[in-house]
Structures
1.
Amino acid sequence: MVTPPAGSREGGYGDGARGALAVEVRPEAGTVVLLLAGELDHDTAEPLRDALQTALNAPAAAGGAPHLLVDLSRLRFCDSTGLNILLRARLVARAAGGAMELAGPTSQVARMFHLTGADGVFRVHPDLDTALTAGPAAGHDT
């Protein structure tokens, strides 16, 4: 179970206000689902950093490999800061024998991933339900 840091809402990070980022963390049958809502940029990235750090450390403490699924369907904007955070988290998950996958990117976020080539690095699902049904890709996210 992923526990949010002291002072944040139970199960979530950030406040979701316009121009802000909210991150809801939900354990789901061996997978930690992170649901992002709002805008992810240099000024709003801290809730995602906190949630990813906790989600990546929890399986290691329990002796397992992390499997993270990040739902982008309510993410209105993502800049290079957000992309770099996701890429770094993917590397940490892989180094621990796990994976990090993405689901439901909005058209704007999907375009940014396509232009940067990141859509070839991550396993990207059309939506969260499809991703959960598919399950982890044999220990790899690509």
2.
Amino acid sequence: MKLSSLATGKSAIIIEFEKDDLHIKLMEMGCVPGETVKIEKIAPLGDPISIMVAGYNLSLRKTEADHIWVEEI
């Protein structure tokens, strides 16, 4: 499933990225395959999404979260 479709409060493990220039930026921010992410908050209109990854909060646009494939745990 895509990270953008995960519900608030749920956790998942990053599986892979859609291969484009964005995946390098995401990996530099701590979103690496095998890392656990948790959806902290979703803005009222669905964008942006606040996630907990690698010990810190990260805010992503929904379009960025669409590029991250995860497995819910």
3.
Amino acid sequence: MRPITNPKHIYADQVGTVVDYEGEKHLITDVGGGCFKVVRLRDGYGRNVEIRKILHR
């Protein structure tokens, strides 16, 4: 099975990190282009969020 995240991406080391986004805890599961794939820990809801909205607050 191949890894989902491109290891050459500048933020590939952020995958697996728990971040506080919109007042709730989210897990970064993938990164690509200008977006993180984040999953809300409370209920498992996943969505794509721009990297700058998470890291550059």
4.
Amino acid sequence: MTGYEKHKDDILRRLRRIEGQVRGLQRMVERDTYCIDVLTQVSATNAALQSCALALLDEHLSCCVTEAIGHGGDRAREKVTEASRAIARLVRS
């Protein structure tokens, strides 16, 4: 079971919207759109990806990590470490 199972449709909707934004970026470059306008859309796409990543992280913490902590032991420590590393990756990006 994935942590985002209850919100899978929302996550997929977000990802499809992002996919559309990327296709729009490709069209903008093909049409020689002004650089700043392309960069503005790149920024919007990055923000959408960040928002999606945060939603997934929230679901992971609320479900997977919380459940593992409830059971305790090595599995709990592994899930907390895994979440910490994911957060570090997001912060660096």
